[in-house]
Amino acid sequence: MMHAQSTTPHLETYYSRRAREYERIYEKPERQQELAWLHGRIPQLYEGRTVLEVACGTGYWTQYIAQSAKKVHSCDINESVLEIAREKPIARGRAEFFKADAVSLAGVPSGCDAAFAGFWWSHVARSGIAQFVANLARRLEPGAVVGILDNQYVEGSSTPISRRDAEGNTYQMRSLANGEQFEVLKNFPTADELREAVRGVAREAHLESLRYYWLLVFTLK
């Protein structure tokens, strides 16, 4: 069990405890215009495709992907968030939720011609990004479309950075409604770092940069 003073970034524990309050992050007034745009943009990417969704959390983005996708296979390591995801108003048969590790992706279904990861990239250590990208690419069909959605750092809206480690990873102190605190790894990559990370697996990639979010879209070789 983590204590309030702990500085160990146990993401699994943190997100399990945060499950029922997770989606409050989407209520920030200053982000509503961009979220509305993303609610339309994400379904456009996946029309008619079979999508592997990595670290789906409470299924917030699954419900938008499922509007146009043929099928969404959504995984997360936490059963507590999957229980919430299964409550989302998604048409029967359009999405399935199952437990799997987002880095190794062991046990995910084959045959997907698209993938999505929302707010997961920033929680992967810089040293682990290459392995995550390689594992994801290996589990998708050639020519698959991949969308990676995450946060820009915006002073006054984002949680302040609490520290930076020797590898360059940055961390935030997160508080739950009950006052419990966790230090969470949260990176904010540059555009060049994102493009370089997928160069080896992508035949083309483009970055859609907003004020509060970024969306990296690439097509596998």
General description of the model:
The protein is an alpha/beta fold and 221 residues long. The protein has one domain: Vaccinia Virus protein VP39 (Rossmann fold), CATH 3.40.50.150. It is built from 6 helices and 10 strands; from the N terminus they run ααβαβαββαββββαββ. The strands form 2 sheets. The protein has a 7-stranded mixed sheet with strand order 3-2-1-4-5-10-9, with helices on both faces. The protein starts with 10 loop residues before the first helix and ends with a strand.
CATH secondary-structure class? Alpha Beta
Could you name the CATH topology? Answer: Rossmann fold
First-to-last CA distance: 43 Å
Q: Estimate percent helicity.
A: 10-25%
Secondary-structure class: alpha/beta
What proportion of the residues form beta strands (DSSP E)?
Answer: 25-35%
Count of domain modules: 1
Rg for CA atoms: 17 Å
Biggest sheet, spatial arrangement of strands: 3-2-1-4-5-10-9
Main β-sheet description: 7 strands, mixed
**Which geometry do the CA atoms define?**
globular
CATH architecture: 3-Layer(aba) Sandwich
CATH homologous superfamily - what is it? Vaccinia Virus protein VP39
Number of strands: 10
Low-confidence stretches: 1-9
From the structure provided, what is the oligomeric state, counting identical versus distinct chains? single chain
Mean pLDDT: 90
Q: Which series of helices and strands comes N to C?
A: HHEHEHEEHEEEEHEE
